[in-house]
Each structure stands twice: as C-alpha cells, then as structure tokens.
Amino acid sequence: MKKWVLSLTLAASVFGLAACGNSAVVKTDAGNVTKDQLYTAMKDKYGSSVLQQLTIEKVLSKKYKVSKKEVNAQVNEAKNQLGTSFDTALQQYGYANESDFRNSIKVGLLEQKAAEASIHPTKKQLKDYYTNNIKPEIKARHILVSSKEKADSIKKQLDKGADFATLAKKNSTDTATAAKGGDLGWFGAGEMDSAFEAAAYKLKKNEISDPVKTSYGYHIIQLTGQKEKQPYSKMKKEVEKKYKESKVTTEKIQAVLKKELKAADIKVKDDDLKNTFDSILSNSNSTSTTSGSSSSSNN
Questions:
Q1: Is 244 exposed, middle or buried (0-12, 13-18, 19+ CB in 10 A)?
Q2: 109: burial class by Cβ within 10 Å (0-12, 13-18, 19+)?
Q3: Which residue blocks in the chain are alpha helix, DSSP H?
Q4: What's this model's pTM, rounded to 2 decimal places?
Q5: Residue 48 and residue 93: Cα distance in Å, rounded?
C-alpha cells in the first residue's frame, strides 16, 4: 500500500485557515504571526501534495467504497505487528496521529480497488494462480532475537527439550506475540516476510527450524498446525481477489489515477496550486490496464 507522508489532519488545518484574515495566531513584542501568514506558509510548503491527496480521495470515493471495517482490519494488523512501537512508527512515517493514519489507509484502499477494477483475469489465469500460488493456511509460533548467536543458543536449548513458549516469553523481541508464547495464529501465503514464510512452509507439524534471517532479525519457528488446501471451486472468489491484489503495481495505480482524474474534469481555482495535478495527468509512463492482456503479461 502506498505510504502518504503528509497528514490529512494537516490538510484540514491548512485549508480551514483560508480567508481567515489577519487575526494573530502568535503575538510577540517583535510583531505578530497572522492566520494569513500561517496559511500562506503552509500552503507553499504542503499545499500541492495535500490538495492532490484530498482530491484523489473525493474522486475515487464516488465510484469505490471503503468500509470502516476494511480500514480497521489494516490498522489492527499494523498494531499487532508493531505492538508497543505503533505510535513511534506513525511518527517515523510522518503521520500526525492514528486518525491521520486511518485516512491514509482509506486513500490507499481506494487506489487499490480502483486498480483492481482494471484487471480482468481469464479462467486459465486464475486456475494457474491457484495451482502455483495458493497454499493451505498454517499456524506457527516464533522467537525473534537480534543476533545469530542468540538464535543459535535458543535453538540448542530447544533441542535439549526446553519449553518453546517459556523461551519466547523470556527472549522474543516481538512484544506483540512474546506474551502468547510466540503464537502467530493462522496465516497463508503472502502474509509474512518471504524468507520467514518459505521456512515455515517447509516444516512438518511440531518441527522447529534453524535460525531464519529476515529484516526483523533472527527467528526460530515452530509449525503448530496445517490445514488442507481447499479445492478451486470453493476458493474461486478468494483466488480472484488474491490474483488481482498480486497484479496491482505503482504503474497501474498511476494509470488509473490519470484516467479517473481526467474524467473528473478537475479545475484548480487557486493560481498558486494550478500545477498540482500535472505530475499525474501528464504521466507518459502510465499504460492502460483496462484489458485482461495487461494482467496476463505479469503471470
């Protein structure tokens, strides 16, 4: 999903100040800072980016709907992954607060849905995707540490019969799962780090992996459950959904935005912001994604 760095909270503040006059926001012995001065400075710094985001949300919302449940699912996933680091991570990505993050998630989901609507897979493409990419859900637990030496030490303890959950609670730096003995619950293909996922799917039930390196550190993984793969007939809708998700690229999103914004006949009334949408509307690298052939080339 696209990460928007500028906050919609800021956007509301910037444009809410318009035509507010010269009343002081700050008073000092050296002179005052007026609302007009603040508005002008904020518009010069953030105006184009914020106006672009607000307009995209308005245009796409006319055709595509994002529910509160969908936004909550994304936010809760982030909270589960980040644990107590959630608020710090929001600040690092430039979000003002959780509300700002939710607005960003909504815009990203609108773009995702708009791009997916332009992808029309054939039956063969879907069946091939089912065969090659759909895996049964598995359940696992893990212990995450920062060094290979620490991971090796924990693996040796486990090989000697130490309790996995106890070691996870004591050692795992994944605070969101450590308290649960490292339990990650059920997950499917494409939901975890690729190296983690590859290692987990190679395990037999109750088998414990050697240390697995990912961008998060070193994992010791134990497979605790595995479901059977359901037949294609029962997974048809899910397969199509996952197929479309896998084909959404930055280029597809840019192409869809260009098409939707042109159709919306945007007219920017503020001369200072008149070039806001030039980067999207004049994007010559965007290619049409309205036919099935565009998605088949990505198989």
A1: buried
A2: buried
A3: 8-16, 35-61, 68-82, 86-93, 98-116, 123-133, 148-159, 164-171, 175-178, 194-202, 232-247, 250-263, 278-281, 292-296
A4: 0.65
A5: 19
Q: What pLDDT, in 10s, does the model give residues 176-212?
A: 899 999 999 999 888 899 999 999 999 999 999 999 9
Q: Answer whether residue 130 is part of any domain.
A: no
Contact call for residues 186 and 101 (beta carbons, < 8 A): no
* Calpha distance 299→289 (Å, rounded): 15
Q: Are residues 94 and 195 in the same domain?
A: no
Dihedral sign from CA coordinates of 97, 98, 103, 108 = positive
Each residue of 109-137: pLDDT tens digit? 999 999 999 999 999 999 999 999 899 99
- Counting the structural domains of the chain, the total is 2
Which residues span the domain enclosing 284?
8-119+248-296
- Helix (H, G, I), strand (E, B), or coil: what is residue 286? coil
Tokens of 273: 């912001």
